[in-house]
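Lab notebook, bench 4. The sequencing result for the construct came back, and we need a structural model before the next group meeting so we can plan mutations. Quick request posted to the team channel:

Model the 3D structure of this chain.
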Amino acid sequence: MEHRFRLLLYAFLPGTLALAMGKAVAQEAAATLAPVEVNASTAAQRRFDAAASYDILQLDPFRAATPLVNLSELVAGQPGVAVIDRGNYAQDLQIAVRGFGSRSTFGVRGVRILVDGIPATMPDGQGQAATAQLPSASQVELLRGPLAQQYGNAAGGVLQVTTRDPRPGGGASASAAAGSSGLRVLGASFDFGDRTLGGLLDVSHMETDGWRAHSAAERTHLNGKLVARPDGDTTITALVNLFDQPNAQDPLGLTRAQFDADPRQTPSVADQFNTRKSISQNQLGLVLDRRLGDQDSLRARVYGGKRALRQYLSMSGDALTSAGGVVDLDRDYYGAGVAWTHALRLLSGLPASWTVGLDADRLAENRRGFVNNGGTAGALRRDERDRAGNTDLHAQVDAWVAPTWRVIAGLRSTQVRVSVDDHYITAANPDDSGSRTYRQTSPALGLVWSASDSVNLYANVGRGFETPTLAEMAYSQTNTGPNYGLAASRSRQAELGVKWQGGAWGAQQRLQAAVFDARSRDEIVPAATVNGRTVYQNADRVRRRGAELAWSATAGAWTPRLAFTWLDAAFDSDYQVAGGARVPSGNRLPGTARQTALVGVDYAAPAGWTAGAEVLAASRTFANDVNTAWAPGYAVAALKAGYAFTAGGVRWYAWGRIDNLFDRRYAGSLIVNDGNSRFYEAAAGRRAVVGLRAQFL
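Done. Here's the predicted structure in token form:
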């Protein structure tokens, strides 16, 4: 087998982590630089050689037996990662990695999300996953552990969705799906051009009546990608993403008594105040990849977007000191980044590389609040201009120091500044203007030992941090303005892991196992709810430790797989909450299950038939810091099937699936530390969906 030196930067913020140098790199000192085209086999090798817990989920949208509306359809059950569909499009998915992000009651915190290298996480650490267009995606990448800290603020883990490249020669496809609770999904995509200049345009529309009362939603999503290769050394990628969700009803959470009586109901205040959210977001991005010679390459990105949001909360917010019961937000955001990578040879002749880069991201938003008069906006109660920005310098060295030993060392220096310019000043509501700057230098060190061609062992350590978001620092317990004293949470992490791939018992198999320990100080937790406002505080120490296991095999037409996570996430010191109650050391971090497991099997028949089954299980999960409320554990099963055929010069794929096969009643997600004890969001019962896709040849 001919070996070549292959260098591929992990596709996110350019040059942050060179995760993909295989063992063959070190064994072939005379190799030459060459770009790598990512396909199934090279992606699998990247995952195997990474000095971290790193997964690449390859996606063929045409033959996916799922409607491709939410990331939870693809990622649920992955080791160390919780991606939960709340059945509530007004609040987006819940995403946590090794317990980071579990406290979030809306949006995503503690986890960096990227779509085609463009951050979907804002400079203050708050992000959203809904803008990832799955019908045009090619893969989802998941990075866990200390090396994720090199991605900056709020990087307890990293999740990236990548849009596929345009198909040379062009083409078109269409899809339709329908299912329980009035689910309707329509989609179409168009490819044009060739390898020199090609593009794709994908549009989809989803509507649902919702399984629970007052949970209907609709959204329209357009994703476009234009790729130009003016010469063999240059690739220019233009990206456009348009997202419109005009009316997503919010069914709110339920108390335990309400959940036990009827999980499909909604609290009366949802109808009283007509709780709902509308979102519109438009974004453009440009990425340049330029090879400067045999040893140097440059990557640069620029992007910008606008986001408009209006949300009706379950309260009037008419008090003079209230921020209102209607949130109105108009945000502009933009950013740029550049990284330079240089490949070289050590004196031993073994390969190495270093990368240096700069990233800068900004947001500025007008945030207003109004009284909620039974579902209509009333008097003004809040009017401010919020800003947040980060400036990051990063550097990394990736070197094979011996034929079977590879070292990765990284350093990232981050500055995050948040500010509020208050325009709503009255006798009862004084000027709340102010600002806060956070700084952090995050080192990371990783080591890989290629024990054999089929076994890699790795270890890494690192430091990271997470600033409070603008929403979390918005209020203080004195009700006199933002909580500028709220500190950033800082963590130290370590992990050990092993990866094995090879043939055994007549099947090609892959195994990955890891143990980890993460300790954070000044964890950001709710302190009290005052006049409908959630006030946050720092809770000193939290410890997250656990173990992960993932196994898969290919035996002819059968592909079995399993994943297991054991997570011990607990407070490591006492702290006091509203009313004088204390959270003792040892209490579990709410929103984290101690055990989660996924067992599944897929079958692909030569005649075009596919089928699959899986079981997802999770243990009891606490709903609040004081651990007085919890959701019981559960196990749910799903079945799916599909059939691919060609007719009339068109490729077809018909598919169907049944989720929650045995109609289990369980809380699919929790609103942790809810001030009204409405912690529980019921998962949908048994539901079916069928679909048909056509690809015109």
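The radius of gyration is 25 Å.
Will bring this to the meeting.
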